[in-house]
């Protein structure tokens, strides 16, 4: 009888893939919801199993050995085959994974999810959020929503809505002694920024006859969500996208004190990963998102 061959640990192979893609044990540990030491132990298990070093230990950067590259290629193939088998055997159990900026998830998608599940109760969406300005697609995501400076001609990208910048603030922020009725009145209030470059305010002020930024007081944030919450609490006036602020405006939490929306040609687009094609609900999901996009376009034409 042949000797039973021991196979490498699947979790260790997944850790290897994550470390290689992230280029960091720390980032891989964060993605896997493990400690850095746990990820290191899993890599050591693989090295012990194959009897070779997988990484060149260096304080400068993480570099794989030639043997590590071979193990990585096999690990990716094995994990992808297992994922394909799982999807084939239990297609309805697999969630459709969408990656997007946290502000977009909270301000735009979350209020619409009840409608999605009312129409598709058997389909499960997994929403993964990031706080970085650029949304990078992940290897385990089916789709991702990102901001583009102009609409894409890529057939796998669906334009959800075009960016229209507007100022928003808490109701009654102005007063008879300190009015907030025009762009000239902005000098009496703080400008709330959703990003470090302050570009949204720069563009809107330039299009509406405002002064340069040095004439105003500023409160910066790194998220649109934080800037809008600060505006609702009366800290100042935020510049945001009309669609992202729509629900708060309808609820009366925020108001547009003056001015008209500024179309920037930028847009938010839903882009598919190659893995999405194997998901049985992909067509239904894209159809629902297309319906949301059409609703926004129709509303923009009437306002």
TrEMBL record:
Pfam families with a match to the protein in the record: HTH_1, LysR_substrate
Q: Name one GO biological process term.
A: DNA-templated transcription
Query: In what residue span(s) does the HTH lysR-type domain sit?
Result: 8-65
Q: What is the superkingdom listed in this entry's lineage?
A: Bacteria
| InterPro entries cross-referenced by the UniProt entry | LysR-type_TF_proteobact-type (IPR058163), LysR_HTH_N (IPR000847), LysR_subst-bd (IPR005119), WH-like_DNA-bd_sf (IPR036388), WH_DNA-bd_sf (IPR036390)
Q: Which UniProt keywords apply?
A: DNA-binding, Transcription, Transcription regulation
Q: What is the name of this protein? A: LysR family transcriptional regulator
Q: Which organism is it from?
A: Pseudomonas brassicacearum
């Amino acid at each position: 009888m042949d000797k039973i061959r021991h196979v490498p640990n699947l979790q260790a192979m997944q850790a290897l893939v994550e470390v290689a893609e992230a280029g960091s044990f720390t980032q891989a540990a964060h993605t896997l919801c493990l400690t850095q030491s746990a990820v290191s132990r899993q890599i050591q298990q693989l090295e012990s199993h194959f009897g070779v070093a997988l990484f060149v230990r260096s304080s400068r950067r993480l570099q794989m050995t030639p043997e590590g590259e071979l193990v990585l290629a096999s690990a990716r193939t094995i994990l992808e085959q297992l994922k394909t088998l799982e999807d084939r055997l239990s297609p309805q159990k697999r969630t459709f994974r969408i990656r997007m900026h946290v502000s977009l998830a909270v301000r735009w998608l979350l209020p619409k999810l009840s409608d999605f599940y009312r129409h598709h109760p058997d389909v499960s969406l997994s929403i993964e959020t990031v706080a970085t300005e650029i949304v990078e697609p992940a290897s385990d995501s089916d789709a991702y929503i990102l901001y583009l400076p102009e609409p894409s001609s890529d057939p796998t990208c669906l334009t959800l809505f075009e960016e229209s910048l507007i100022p928003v603030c808490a109701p009654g922020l102005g007063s008879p002694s300190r009015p907030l009725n025009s762009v000239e009145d902005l000098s009496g209030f703080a400008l709330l920024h959703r990003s470090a470059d302050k570009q949204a305010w720069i563009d809107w002020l330039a299009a509406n006859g405002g002064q340069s930024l040095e004439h105003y007081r500023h409160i910066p944030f790194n998220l649109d969500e934080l800037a809008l919450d600060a505006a609702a609490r009366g800290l100042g006036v935020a510049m945001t996208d009309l669609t992202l602020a729509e629900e708060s405006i309808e609820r009366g939490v925020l108001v547009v004190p003056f001015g008209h929306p500024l179309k920037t040609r930028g847009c938010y687009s839903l882009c598919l990963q190659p893995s999405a094609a194997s998901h049985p609900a992909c067509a239904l999901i894209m159809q629902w998102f297309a319906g949301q996009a059409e609703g926004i376009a129709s509303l923009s034409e009437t306002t």
